[in-house]
Amino acid sequence: DAMVIQNPRYQVTQFGKPVTLSCSQTLNHNVMYWYQQKSSQAPKLLFHYYDKDFNNEADTPDNFQSRRPNTSFCFLDIRSPGLGDAAMYLCATSRDPRPSETQYFGPGTRLLVL
Amino acid sequence: DAKTTQPNSMESNEEEPVHLPCNHSTISGTDYIHWYRQLPSQGPEYVIHGLTSNVNNRMASLAIAEDRKSSTLILHRATLRDAAVYYCILRVPYNQGGKLIFGQGTELSVKP
Questions:
Q1: Contact A99 B101 (CB under 8 A)
Q2: Any residues with CB less than 8 A from the CB of A58 and at least 6 apart, and which?
Q3: For A83, which DSSP code?
Q4: How many CA atoms lie within 13 A of B103 on its CB side?
Q5: Bigger pLDDT: B56 vs B98
Q6: With bands split at pLDDT 50, 70 and 90, how would you rate the model's confidence at B53?
Q7: What's the pLDDT at A47?
Q8: Low-confidence ranges of chain A (pLDDT < 50)
Q9: Mutant choice from A41, A100, A109 vs B, greatest count of B C-beta within 10 A
Q10: Searching chain B, which residue's CA lies closest to the CA of residue A110?
Q11: Cross-chain Cβ contact B102/A43 below 8 Å
């Protein structure tokens, strides 16, 4: 089945140690999104790629970066994780960014910062 | 940013219909109304979306008010597996951002 895959499902890192989360998709969608979801809160968009064009949300900290080497893969890099970055990180895709299009979410990676 | 308002929580009995309300008084003419749900420890899952007309699919129905300032997600027969947080979301055109802006969501519990 076509899907959005996130690895790993759980990631433990140390305070200040760079960490990379990965997302892949078999849907061949043009848009890939990264959301952060803290405990008991709604998901919050960090940034997205429309093809190779990177779009950062205004309030996304500089500590968060992203790479999309090809259509299928997208990475979230946290350069120096702080305790406040512990959260569920969700990857999503959509065929295109039109408001009528559905977003398909992966299962998420839960990040723990020690 | 376009905003939605939902009750924090609702309860339903199994096998009964559930009506989940959403207010979006600041909606503009090109904003789509999307509903997603999120089960514990999972990513959000698409439920339904619409622009002006009521919509039906295998999961639910979406009733949109004539002035579009409110909508209601209808689960026709709630099951225990429908217990989740339901998010009502306005999605604006891409040239205005195009993103899903999640509101607080409604936590639905289903009693056997």
A1: no
A2: none
A3: G
A4: 24
A5: B56
A6: very high
A7: 93
A8: none
A9: A100
A10: B41
A11: yes
- CA-CA-CA-CA dihedral for A50, A54, A57, A61, to nearest 10: 140
Backbone φ, ψ for residue A83 (5° rounding)? -60, -30
**Would you call A98 and B44 a contact, using CB atoms and an 8 Å cutoff?**
no
Alpha-carbon separation of residue A32 from A22, A81, A86, B27 (angstroms): 12, 22, 22, 25
CB pairs under 8 A between A and B: 54
Our CA-based measurement puts residue A74 at a distance from the nearest CA of chain B, in whole angstroms, of 17
Question: Each residue of B15-45: pLDDT tens digit?
Answer: 999 999 999 998 988 899 999 999 988 999 9
Angle at B81 between CA A22 and CA A42, to 5 degrees: 45
Model confidence at B98: pLDDT above 90 = no
SS3 content of chain B, % helix, strand, coil (to 5): 5, 50, 45
Q: Is the pLDDT of residue B2 over 70?
A: no
